[in-house]
Amino acid sequence: MSDRAVFAWVIDGLNRRLAEPSGDPKQRRVYNALRAWIVSGELMPDMRLPSSRLLARETDMGRNTALGAIDQLVAEGFLVAREGAGVYVTAVGFAGLSDTPNAPTSDRLSQRGRAVLAVSPDDAVTHPAFTLGMPALDRFPEARWRRVVRRHQRPGAQQALHYRTHGGHPDLKAAIADYVRLARGVVCQADQILITHGTQQGLGLVATLLADGGDSAWIEDPGYLGARAAFQAADLRLIPVPVDDDGLDGSAVASAHPAPRLIYTTPSNQYPRGVTLALKRRLALLETARQHEAWIVEDDYDSELRYVSSPLACLQGLAGGAPVIYLGTFSKTLFPALQLGYIVVPRALISRFRRANARLFREEDPALQAALADFMNSGEFAAHIRKMRRCYRRRQAALREALAPATNAGLRLSSGAAGLHLVAYLDSIAQETRLVDEGAAVGVSLARLSTYFIGGRTEPGLVLGYAGADEAEIARPGGWLARAWRASQDDGS
Amino acid sequence: MSDRAVFAWVIDGLNRRLAEPSGDPKQRRVYNALRAWIVSGELMPDMRLPSSRLLARETDMGRNTALGAIDQLVAEGFLVAREGAGVYVTAVGFAGLSDTPNAPTSDRLSQRGRAVLAVSPDDAVTHPAFTLGMPALDRFPEARWRRVVRRHQRPGAQQALHYRTHGGHPDLKAAIADYVRLARGVVCQADQILITHGTQQGLGLVATLLADGGDSAWIEDPGYLGARAAFQAADLRLIPVPVDDDGLDGSAVASAHPAPRLIYTTPSNQYPRGVTLALKRRLALLETARQHEAWIVEDDYDSELRYVSSPLACLQGLAGGAPVIYLGTFSKTLFPALQLGYIVVPRALISRFRRANARLFREEDPALQAALADFMNSGEFAAHIRKMRRCYRRRQAALREALAPATNAGLRLSSGAAGLHLVAYLDSIAQETRLVDEGAAVGVSLARLSTYFIGGRTEPGLVLGYAGADEAEIARPGGWLARAWRASQDDGS
To answer: Fewer CB within a 10 Å sphere, N or C end of chain A?
Structure first.
């Protein structure tokens, strides 16, 4: 093709493109058209392009528009400018590129990615009844909270806008240290607190820094799926530890090889069974950890929400210098989307945790942290927790009342001494499946207890969140469940 | 010891404790004292405690205080209540617990933890001159930004407070999709955007989901330390790929085994060398990725800040269905502490990325995301970028001017076509060390180019951030550096 034929083809094509309706700037459209023709092979290597002057004269665009588009293509290597001789299509061949499929050839995930996905449901909340991990958002003092947050959204020192490696805002670290010391019996100073983007990030950090891929981690069975996902993402070998009425029973896996590097536990309110780790087991667990130089990862996710006696002191504070990393969160006491949590790290490790956290995850918004410190120091946080304890006691009672026709007929519930849910124990997986399916059919979303098990052993049941729905909202689905359970008993399924 | 002797000992001890000044509530102090005596063995298994009535009469506390402390210790298993016979110390032995060291026996990190730590400096910013990754925070329209954020801090739908698996706020995803399509040539729709807690989280997610521990990842050498840390945390085997003036040169490692699963690159503005990946190399890289079913991880961290020609189109958009995960961030265009980034994921993978991200990291604050969407849609974001391009061009010029005495004498600088820093190439590691040490002595913090290398090869130089300090602030340290460099040349070191 002669230069003139190419010029005519390009000018004709651009005129047609520019006549089409589009929201994009003209220069972008010229650039896109030329690039597409080069990549598709319609404009071939070494073909000469019309000059910007000619383009401007023969099409509806200014000289600068033409120049801008051509310069960009030269800068990106699609065109080459030859001194005094015009602009040419680059000699690079785009063969193969034009007929690429519209999706990558491979969409497979890694093995650990698939393991994580297996415990990553699509949590579409449709109705607050029975939703897990959902506090009473309808009772959250949102207006007051937003006011505190707004108050801290004021231009401050520029440093607040930069990356930092402080482990968190000093005011928030101090407020949390005071709180966990007094309310949770944690032995720590403010400099041992590391503010995280919620518990999940804290678990990821602990798993990465304290264990290598292939190392063993004891994990409660049944247990919290988020911990399972974090450990699987970190390539740990999960050793399921059975949980009975006294919490996890380490003696059942004491001879498992290799020895654990991490031991994950929820001692104050085991998730999901709601039992407490007995003192004897706590001492044994500390001893096991010491013996193997393992770390206990204590996830104290909602223990302030206890309805029988005061909250139980944590494992971390049971012995001086216990090999425990303690994790706390505001997701249950305030609201999940806040996404602020904290870990308490022994002093020997804290500066390394701080640096690695800043490297791998960066630190949290200082203004938000300052607002939360304010909310804690003003007493609003403690007041909210007290209020929520009363609220959840009432909501749990409402669920129990709704389920009374079933419990009177033998349905067994967990103690409900703490937390945001009850477990209803069933007779068989068939019964569990039947109730979940029937629930789905009437718009009641039910969580299976059996999915929280990781070893071979499993128990049928339902995990029923009661905190997110008020007394009126829980009555209908609760009543439905009682009837459905009785029907399933009568049918012997 | 008789019961009466124990009673007297306890009452005496408590009276002494209660007489000491303390900010803690009385019940907490009684609880702490009793617990400590039990754990230390001063109160031994099966010893009987004085009744709450006796305690209240003989000490300065009310009956409820005594009851509360005792109930708590019973709930936690330290005391046992025997029906009608009083309260006794539990039979659990605490031997070994009392003389535990005050720190865990082991403070060792995992191998990968140590690898991450090696690239996790303590980034204490002392002076803005030469600081890396620091945009012009002094020019950020912070008052206007805070106003937008405050406007979105209004009580909204309760759902905004709960966990979600949407991949981000729909308004922000739409605004980003529009922006990257137009400004960066990314081929995507809004549903392919996943909002992350900054680039680091995005890198962690990609490494976890698309590669398994031990898989190979190509990484630019020299290259971005954050990517190196993220991949090391994910246990990937790093294959350093040399970077020349045309960007990373995959042909240099084409025969490395095993084949890569991930290929990390910063094609628009290679970090830290500041070169552009040539078109030929881009095509070759796409071909390599296809051949090995590997994923290219395109980190487009600051390419909108380009001072010569328009920003270069990204690799992701070069071919339809390219096997590319594209990462962007607002850390450089707005401010680092904002901690919002995004990844663009092929449609075949996006729902799995969304679910895994929600499981492993949870989603970002919806109010903050809505505020950012607002900031983008109002045009303030684009206006700020335009303004910053002019600002950084001036600041880079100021640095070049301050360094002129050195560059005129042969100091070689990188092109500075884009980004927030210049590289000054040196003659030897000895010279690099000398300048860094001399800088530290006069309070000028200098980053070594050699630390960005991972393979055997290394190059001496300094990586000089120029964006964070204004023209006046850069003059003195810049002038100092020019003199120090000349002195080091004269000394032949």
So the answer is: N
Distance from the Cα of A488 to chain B's closest Cα (Å) equals 33
Highest mean pLDDT: which of A135-149, B173-187, B262-276? B262-276
Region A375-392 average pLDDT: 94
What type of residue sits at position B118? A
| Cβ contact, residue pair A72, B348, below 8 Å | no
Give chain B's domains with CATH numbers: 3-89 (1.10.10.10), 161-380 (3.40.640.10), 383-490 (3.90.1150.10)
- Sign, CA torsion B449/B450/B452/B455: positive
Cα distance from N-terminal residue to C-terminal residue, chain B: 79
Chain A contact set for B104 (CB, 8 A): 295, 321-323, 346, 348
Q: How far is A311 from chain B (nearest CA, A)?
A: 8
Residues from chain B contacting residue A363 (CB–CB below 8 Å): 337, 339
State whether A212 and B308 contact (CB < 8 Å): no
Say whether B323 and A211 touch across the interface (CB within 8 A): no
Taking the CA of residue A405 and the nearest CA in chain B, the distance in Å comes to: 31
Q: Where are the alpha helices (DSSP H) in B139-241?
A: 142-151, 170-184, 198-210, 225-233
pLDDT for A434 equals 97
Residue of B92, B117, B313 lying closest to A280 (CB–CB): B92
Structure tokens at B367: 């109010």
Contact yes or no for A100 and B322 at CB 8 A: yes
Of A106, A214, A348, the CB nearest to B104: A348
Average pLDDT over residues B235-251: 95
| pLDDT confidence tier of residue A241, bands split at 50, 70 and 90 | very high
pLDDT at position A466 over 50: yes
B63 contacts: CB under 8 Å, gap ≥ 6: B52, B53, B56
From the CA of B418, how many Å to the nearest CA of chain A?
Answer: 13
User: Would you state the pLDDT for residue A337?
Assistant: 85
Chain A, 3-42: which have a CB under 8 Å from a chain B CB? 24, 28, 35, 39
Q: Is the Cα dihedral A148, A149, A154, A160 positive or negative?
A: positive
Cβ neighbours of residue B78 under 8 Å, at least 6 residues apart?
Answer: A279, B34, B35, B38, B39, B89, B90
Residues 6+ apart with CB under 8 A from A320: A187, B100, B101, B102
Distance of alpha carbon A440 from the chain centroid: 25
Instruction: Write the pLDDT tens digit of every residue in A406-432.
Output: 999 999 999 999 999 999 999 999 999
Task: Kindly report the pTM of this predicted structure.
Answer: 0.90
B155 touches chain A (CB under 8 A): yes
pLDDT tens sequence across B21-73: 888 888 889 998 998 888 888 888 889 999 989 999 999 889 999 999 998 88
Chain B positions touching A94 (Cβ under 8 A) are 283
Pairing mode of beta strands A421-425, A461-465: antiparallel
Confidence (pLDDT) at A85: 83
B280 touches chain A (CB under 8 A): yes
pLDDT in tens, A75-114: 888 898 888 889 999 887 776 665 444 445 567 899 999 9
Answer yes or no: are the C-beta atoms of A435 and A448 closer than 8 Å. Answer: no
Greater model confidence, A157 or A173: A173
B411 token code pair: 């100091």
Q: Angle CA(B296)–CA(B298)–CA(B299) in degrees, nearest 5?
A: 145
Using a CB-CB cut-off of 8 Å, the residues of chain B touching A142 are 155, 161
Residue A158 near chain B (CB below 8 Å): yes
pLDDT at B157 over 60: no
3-state secondary structure of A324: strand
CB contact under 8 A, B235 and A212: yes
